[in-house]
Amino acid sequence: MLSPIDATQDLGYAWLVMNMPFDALGDVSNEALLVAFGNGDRASAQALTMRLTPVVLGYATRLLRDHAEAEDVAQEAMLRLWKIAPEWRQGEAKVTTWLYRVVTNLCTDRLRKKRGKGLDEIAEPEDGQPSQETRLMDKARVSALEAALGTLPERQRQAVVLRHIEGLSNPDIAQILNVSVEAVESLVSRGKRLLAKRLAGEKDRLGFEDDET
């Protein structure tokens, strides 16, 4: 339970954040911004929305492979974050870890409801600036990787995406998936092996390199 001293410190820091100009909030932690929003600061909510929504949306899109559904999940996850803001206390958890866990659960629920249906069409990535040949190759690689990820068992896909795309540590992933660090290592290892097998036929054509790690 939070002591009166800790609560006073949280409120004091929240007051400092609430009185910062918006362009200064970029250096403030997610946790401090959430505490400030919980105490009524709308600018902190705006800063958190701009910072976290792309992260949440990207993760949900990789799990669901459906942008429209991912947008719904991202919106629901952020709404849940706002609801718990008044009760948030710094030092208890990372905001990003909490959000990844919520998004994982929301996506899992949606995938279970859709189980038995065919894989969704994979949207083509937007064109970049390189040459047409390079763009086509990049699109093919992304499409092949996303298609292969989509065939992995649910928990393996979550672990691989969190580790190698989102760049999270194994302990953080363990908290998000509510499993041990050893289980995360096993999920990632098995997922990578299966992913390599799925992409084996595309390796030479698309220029994928072997991953020995």
TrEMBL record:
Gene Ontology terms: biological process: DNA-templated transcription initiation
GO function term, MF aspect, one: sigma factor activity
Cross-referenced Pfam families: Sigma70_r2, Sigma70_r4_2
InterPro entries, sorted: RNA_pol_sigma-70-like (IPR039425), RNA_pol_sigma-70_dom (IPR014284), RNA_pol_sigma70_r2 (IPR007627), RNA_pol_sigma70_r4_t2 (IPR013249), RNA_pol_sigma_r2 (IPR013325), RNA_pol_sigma_r3/r4-like (IPR013324), WH-like_DNA-bd_sf (IPR036388)
UniProt keyword annotation of S-adenosyl-L-methionine present: no
Keyword terms, alphabetized: DNA-binding, Sigma factor, Transcription, Transcription regulation
PANTHER family xref list: RNA POLYMERASE ECF-TYPE SIGMA FACTO (PTHR43133), RNA POLYMERASE SIGMA FACTOR HI_1459-RELATED (PTHR43133:SF8)
Family according to the record: Belongs to the sigma-70 factor family. ECF subfamily.
Protein name: RNA polymerase sigma-70 factor, ECF family
